[in-house]
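A quick aside before the break. I want you to see a complete sequence-to-structure record at least once, exactly as it would be stored in a machine-readable document. Don't worry about memorizing anything.
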Amino acid sequence: MTIQEHEQELADLATFFETATFPPTPIKLNNYITITGDPRVMIEMKINTIQRFKGSDIVRDSLFKHLRELKALCQAQ
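That is the input. The structure line, written in tokens, reads:
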């Protein structure tokens, strides 16, 4: 993915989460991460980290992973 594609995906995710309905907490994203508080706090932290990141696509994709997982859970409701 290009930087522009990542930026577009990040903008799309941010827009999605503005109106998303979240599953009740705790939200188990995967075997390692469970959101116990307000999911919007985690979303904001991830978005800020991604925006500051200027490294490889592999690392950037891993930063997107949790936002993608949360989006899938919201859509599955």
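Two observations worth writing down. The longest strand covers residues 27-28. The chain has a mean pLDDT of 90. We'll return to this after the break.
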